[in-house]
From TrEMBL:
The chain crosses the membrane at residues 6-24, 75-92, 124-147, 159-180, 187-208, 228-248, 269-295, 315-348, 369-386, 392-412, 424-442, 454-473. It is found in: Cell inner membrane; Cell membrane. This is Sodium/proline symporter. The lineage of its organism: Bacteria, Pseudomonadati, Pseudomonadota, Gammaproteobacteria, Alteromonadales. It holds the Pfam family SSF. It is a multi-pass membrane protein. Keywords: Amino-acid transport, Cell inner membrane, Cell membrane, Ion transport, Membrane, Sodium, Sodium transport, Symport, Transmembrane, Transmembrane helix, Transport. Belongs to the sodium:solute symporter (SSF) (TC 2.A.21) family. The keyword Cell membrane applies. The keyword Cell membrane applies. CDD domains: SLC5sbd_PutP. Catalyzes the sodium-dependent uptake of extracellular L-proline. It catalyses: L-proline(in) + Na(+)(in) = L-proline(out) + Na(+)(out).
Amino acid sequence: MHAMSYVSLAIYFLAMLGIGLFAYRQSTSDMSGYILGGRQVSPHVTALSAGASDMSGWMLMGLPGAMFLLGYETMYIAAGLLLGALVNYAVVAPKLRVYTEVADDALTIPEFFSKRFGSHDRGVRIISAVIIVLFFTLYTSAGLVAGGKLFESAFGLDYQLGLVITLGVVVSYTLLGGFLAVSMTDFVQGCIMFVALVLVPIVAFMQFDGVGDMQRAAYESIPTFDQAINDTTLLAVISSLAWGLGYFGQPHIIVRFMAIRSVKDIKTARNIGMSWMTVTIIGALATGLVGVAYANKFGLKVGDPETIFIVFSEILFHPVISGFLMAAILAAIMSTISSQLLVSASSLTEDIYRLKAGRAATDQETVKIGRYGVAGVAFVALLLSLDSSNSILSLVSNAWAGFGAAFGPLVLFSLYKANLTHKAAIGGIVAGAATVLFWIYAPVLADGQALSSVIYEIIPGFIVSSVVIWLICQFDEAPEQAVQDTFANAQRVLAEQQ
């Protein structure tokens, strides 16, 4: 790439580190500040932080690549994600913001699960923390693989060097500023992603003589819109739409709702977040659609469809803009990695270390351990990502389903069912995670294929987890009165703040 592209990237990296240093000076003196930004995050930062940490590199690489290969049926995934995010803002965000504060100021999702049933019930907290650390270590490695491949394909650098650069910048600002740094950098990264996903498809479309010309070229290798609607099976539609179920159980996304300044700010965050998400998803789909048309009309050879955004960035733009667009991909990758590192570290410190250390552990001590946790998880993820043949899409898809099935139903039951019990919570987590793993890996079909080849594993996982929680609640003893009083108090506080 041109030297000016590297200058653009260098400026981006320095900006991220500068934000981390600013956040370090603002809010890292205690665990509430380090993990949740003191619950004083603005709705604008909350919205773009949630969106940027959610979308990751798949927004600029995976979704355009799917559209390039499959065509309009990819829109079902986009529709499922938009619907899931909207429902998440409506049914989870307000209650979770209030309930986690009322429940003795719970700072993490596992801590909330535990305090939901009384602080003496630690089983659900430890199990949740272990699942979070394990899945997010794999999830983080998938993001690092994407970063390494980006540096390798776009900049001609060694794959391992790309891993180190990506991880080095992310770990630096996460170590420095904690949640505030992660949220503020996510805000900037979300803005970069927004501009990039508007700019690239528009400039690429300008190479055609109108919509008809573009469509004729695209239809040489993908089905028309009508064909895609008629040929897509019902199970395929359900599987694609079911991606939206995952939102209720993604710790790195719903933790944003815990940190927002107030319940009244959630409506503003929802409007900003959904507008951002709608535009960026349409931009990602348009990039893939215009990409396949461009390749057909102009004879462009695209070895890997997931690199179409990179290809457009290199052939259609000035080197300075090209560097900015590469930074957009890095922004998408880094925003998710940083969120995953912080949630993993907070689970290690608050849900495992503090339980072992007891009341003797000070806030300053746990913040220090939290930073060690960020470095530790990052190091393990780096080791797992050294093999460039790792399947990014497979890891992300499986982790999304695992979190969605293990935690999604429990989050909803915790917020809406007063007599939810500790045993039901543990049962739901284990049943959801086990079902997803069975669906992915058990070769039970006649040809040795797993059940995930028939329908996306989050659907059976979510259903089984929900049924198990409901059944155990029917036969288990009702929770103690203090637990029910806390639930009632949360409902009262929510009514007052809305």
